[in-house]
């Protein structure tokens, strides 16, 4: 009896150790991904926004002080540069903290997917969002959005392959459920994309940060990813 108890204790200990290191690797992976994104945003600011601001400022400095009446072409040039700079700042703001995040998770998801729709015309997106959603913390909503972004970046191939992506957000009892179903052109593409180690890290990180659960279902040439977390009860 004692031997059995010792064996059980050892097995439980080994399970906890493996679980600890699995979670540690997943969080390290998540941290590296987020740090890389912040670095790329900083590069955009240095290489684009600051250069645009310098150009606008230099253009204003070169305007003759005594010339109070600007020509139509000069006015349009300044307006064009100013509008471009404003648009770049707005896009940067949305990338750092997505629009609508504090007010509506469904709207935030739609806003996050919109750039993907415009930049990937070969992908077919079908998005099903509820008209209303219970209020929840911006921190949880941000984790859900970042998880969705990471999933798309990991699973969608860089080559121009026609894929179908179905995204839905539902509330199942007291759980929020984000489902992403990707249909691939063939089974080989599905097998390759579904077995990437980054996906295990992503699911482990989501479970740890939200105290939620994840699972997937495969069928023919499609795979559906489910991300579930507790939602506030009124």
Strand and helix layout:
Layout: H1 2-62, H2 72-96, H3 105-119, E1 123-128, H4 138-155, E2 163-172, E3 175-183, H5 187-194, H6 197-210, E4 213-219, E5 222-230
Parallel strand pairs: 1-2
Antiparallel strand pairs: 2-3, 3-5, 4-5
Helix pairs in contact: 1-2, 1-6, 4-6
Short description:
With 234 residues, the protein is an alpha+beta fold. Helices cover 60% and strands 18% of the residues.
Q: Could you explain how this protein is built, in words?
A:
The protein is α+β, with helices and mostly antiparallel strands and 234 residues long. It has six helices and five strands. The chain has a five-stranded mixed β-sheet with strand order 1-2-3-5-4, with helices on one face. Helix 1 (2-62) crosses helix 6 (197-210). The radius of gyration is 24 Å and the shape is elongated. The model has no long low-confidence stretch (mean pLDDT 78).
| Low-confidence segments | none
Elements, N to C (H/E): HHHEHEEHHEE
Mean pLDDT score: 78
SS-based class: alpha+beta
Radius of gyration: 24 Å
Strand content: 15-25%
What is the percent of helical residues?
Answer: 55-70%
Sum up the overall morphology in one term: elongated
Query: How many β-strands, per DSSP?
Result: 5
Largest sheet: 5 strands, mixed
Within the largest sheet, what's the order of strands?
A: 1-2-3-5-4
Spatial gap, N to C terminus: 49 Å
DSSP summary: helix tally: 6
